[in-house]
Design goal:
single chain, 30% strand
Amino acid sequence: MTRSALRVVRGTALFLGAVLTFALAPGASARVTDKDLEGMVAPTASGDEQPGSLRGGHYTPQAVPEINGPGRVSTVGNVWLKTTNIGVMGNPFPANSSDPSAQWPGPSGNEYLFYWGFWVGAKNPEAADPTVVRRVSHNTEWRPPTLAPEDRIYQSYDGQVGGARDIDDDEDGHVDEEFYNGKDDDNDGAIDEDYAAISQQMFTCEMRDDTDQAVNANFAEKHVPFGLLLRQSTFAFAVPGANDFTAVNYEVTNQSGHDLDSVFVGFVVDQDVGPTSLDRYFSDDLAEPRVPQGDFFQVLTAQDANYDPELCPNDTIHVRGFSVTDDDGDLGRTTAASSFLLLGHTTDPTGIKGPRRVGFRMYRAYLPGTPFVQGGGPTVDLERFQTLAFGLNGATTPIGIDPVTGLISEERPDESTKTDYFAICSVGPYLNWQNGEKISVQVALAVQRCDYSRPVTDGATGGPGQERYAAMVANAIEAQKTFRGKYMPPGLNIPVPDARGRETGLIAPPGTRFERADCHDEDAGLPREVNDDGYTWFDFDCNYCTGVAGMTLKSWLAAAPPPSPDLRLTPGDRKVTLEWDNLSEITPDPSTGLVDFKAYRIWKASNFTRPVGSSGPSEELWALLAEFKLFDYLTPLRDSVDTTGDSVPDTIRLTAPVLLNTQTNQRLFPIDIAPCKVGTTLINGDCPRATTAQGDTAYYDGPRSYQITPGVAVVEPHYKVAIYPIGRYRYEDPNVQNGFVYFYSVTGKDSTGQRDVNGGRGNLAEQEGRRSAVESNGVTPQSATALAASDTAIYVVPNPYRGSAQWDLTPNAADPTGTHIDFYNMPAGQWTLRIFTISGDLVQTIRYDDLQTNGKAQKENAADGQASWNLISRNGQDVVSGIYIFSVESEAGTSRGKFVIIR
């Protein structure tokens, strides 16, 4: 047997998964980015890359790569992290997008990351040119596989149809065989029909290192790819205790067609800390290499599947991470610190092909502007590979890591050296990485309060200053617990340990067998045989707390409130209509498997001015409009009993859930969609509802948890309810003004959410999804269209415009003026608006289907009678004071008028 042929299962995961690495060559300043990031462009609709152009003041949607305009930002938790599909996390492209990199809490304007980049370094034994044997695919050398529309970032949530974890969604005998990427991964003719949706908000995308765009990009060094596929998944959680970090799972597959050797996965991490409203807020940061890290004991109880009073009364949580803090908290404006956590990666407990345990290979914090030969960051691939392997020019053993404990040993720099630090870390090496094998790495950005009033200690535990980092360490422990998850009954065809403590399963290649022993076998002097008939399980980590007979370790597990329903907002004349589906009512809690929905809550945010650095309304702007509570005494579906006492299986007999407004006692029924009438009983197919691929009604059928007596959970094992699309419920808000931007969020609230509270189990605590919105989610009520030529003439608001308007926002990259004037009483149908100077020079032309600065069409719906202009001329310049004439041409004729601008 060759060493590379050994297959290992740890819990339920195959040994080698995808290898990932991040890399950005740091510049002299966090605002002076790597040459690899300069000159990024916005592709045209045809997919050809060219210098970014605007249509109606906005980038085209789903641009490849997705770095422009409003992008994918995790918003359900407190860490608002931007995901891209170009090898970096965060937003190092401020000229292209006003999205945050990683703000906390929510859209606060306080950043805790500039970016991190993903690197994979390897030795290519097939390379003919010795100068390209050791290369690194890094940062923007990772690109979407193609420029096709399906190669983009996808958003999903735990419980989404087709995304049930450990469930055979398409009933083909396989579990979670798809990756959510818009493709038919299992070649069964269906797309994304059976994948694993994790967390309350998940972003997924694919990237490669061998695309034409990467190879032909104008980098400082010619890119030599390996031929790797990278699958990236971003996880954000809403539940308290798991909402102060956002995690990313990287899975890299070797598709080079040959073996690679000495493989390292690495990250360059630039954790800028401070409020973006301060100039050079990133220049007074301090590296904290040893915070948070350590091994922390956890007391187990009988409710924990791995508990044993003699063998496993306590468990250990291993935390591996490093942080960046501000030097003084910016006079109270910076209240937290940024931690980069290594949650897990592919391991080989045998030590044959990879690291035996989770931990960094190397770590080093770098000063900007220092040459590589003097201990600075790398700038070319040979230097990057040397860094991933050893961390420093000329080093022959990894630096910054204690070789015994695997913990970071680098000293905290002196406070006199505060500057714009960046760090590089790696995991590995992985040897003899065969074609088709995978390596996976899991990391997280965690942000939590740092008590800057407390003295500094050089570690996360012990010492006089441990109170300074206490909240950061507690947050890191919660992140590690969420990633590790719990031992639960296995899903379909999942191999499980055959005895306590045996966490690793081995299977021999076909036709071979060999002997292997773990620490217990060695004590007994009896090695065991591994053959090709099935997995043989071993306790390689010598820990009775890992590995539970008949159980599998389900990772990424946290109790959660119901996911927010899918929401549609329709602006009208002095009103906004909200419509949503019943997703919150049919999504089980990921940690209990129970549906525990209790209420919908409708939130509204007004008076948004877009402060510098903000990507959406802040917490204090949100106000509760209404709460609609599910009538808890609703009788769940049960099989009926006939007159002879025999059970008669029920069909999909459904009653409309009665939702009661807790503030006004108003009842909210499903909206009136013919032939279904408001408030009537819904039976079988009376109303539109989701259907399966076979055309049958799709419905949830499983256990529902609810409360009759407060604090006492009742479980109905067969609760059945149909799945309805957007439009199930409708709510109208008339308290709005035309021309102003508003934000809405409908959240779900549960009745039996659980999370470890003060070390207890089974404590009941209501949980609610996070109210959140980014600027692109805003809606602006619009005046109604003119119905006839005799209607009131078109007019301008404000007129005169005196240098500002009540609805003004702070300018940003996508909206350089931050203001607009609006044309009211626009005609129905298609129209063209032209604006002229008093002397007749054409200033600007606006058409009904042009995009506004918020990315939405001028005419958002058939009844929209309002047009907006940002006071930018067709030459891209601010217009000056003066009298302007406008002309509106439509099927109803031509309408003219004038307005005044006073600067």
